[in-house]
Amino acid sequence: LNIAASADENHAVDCALSNYTFTSGDPDTMAFDTERLAKHDSSDLSRDSYARYWHGYLVFLRPLLTITDYSGIRIINYFLLSALLIICLWLMWTKIAAHCSMIFAISLLMINFATVPYSMQFTTCFFVAFAGIAAILAVPQLTCSRPAAMSTFFILGGITAFLDFLT
Fold first, then answer.
1. pLDDT at 94
2. String of DSSP letters for 15-76
3. What does the alpha-carbon distance between residue 14 and residue 19 come to, in Å, rounded to a whole number?
4. CA-based nearest residue to 33, from 49, 45, 43
5. From 33, 87, 130, 149, which residue has the greatest number of CB atoms within 10 Å?
6. What is the pLDDT of residue 54?
7. What does the pLDDT average to over 85-104?
8. Cα gap 92→102, rounded to integer Å
9. What is the tens place of the pLDDT at every residue in 30-52?
10. DSSP codes of every residue in 64-108
11. Alpha-helical segments (H) within 96-142
12. How many CB atoms within 10 Å of residue 39?
């Protein structure tokens, strides 16, 4: 959020490539620094660059922040992840077997999936995973042969790497 709030529309390309943040230098106060930045109070904050890490999720986060706030993004995350989860569970139930769908649901409960939409860091990977599961189950041709499966998983890996490589 600090990176998204630090963007300068007058230097959009530079900001997109350099991923600037405004901080006090103390990692323990990053949330407070971000809140101050959002309130346009960056008087004693220094500008740092986090260009060593690609933040592809900002392609979605920055436009979302123009129409909603952090709570709104969490609500959108809950809605979209829940919809994708229901689609995945239904496809598993109908295409594979009911017990596979139930095991998948239990595994998500065990990792406390309900907290995932609260984390901006983890939601992108869950979106890619659930969309990939749904696509593979809905379109069997994506994995019907070795070259098709390799292409499908290469694309899913590429999307994951673009959105958030280290997560």
1. 96
2. HHHH-EEEE-S-GGGHHHHHHHHHTT--TTPEEEE-TTS--TTHHHHHHHHHH--HHHHHHH
3. 8
4. 45
5. 33
6. 67
7. 96
8. 9
9. 778 777 777 777 777 877 776 66
10. HHHH--HHHHHHHHHHHHHHHHHHHHHHHHHHT-HHHHHHHHHHH
11. 98-110, 120-138
12. 9
pLDDT recorded at residue 11: 66
For residue 80, pLDDT over 90 is answered with yes
Contact yes or no for 132/156 (Cβ under 8 A) = yes
Structure tokens at 134: 């749904």
User: 117: which DSSP letter?
Assistant: G
CA distances from 99 to 89, 95, 96, 136, 145 (A): 10, 11, 9, 18, 26
Cα 58 to the center of its chain, rounded Å: 9
Nearest Cα neighbor of 164 from 134, 133, 120, 130 is 120
DSSP-derived 3-state class of residue 8: coil
Residue pair 72/62 in contact by the 8 Å Cβ criterion:
no
Question: What six digits make up the tokens of 52?
Answer: 């060593």
Phi, psi (deg, nearest 5) at residue 2: -65, -45
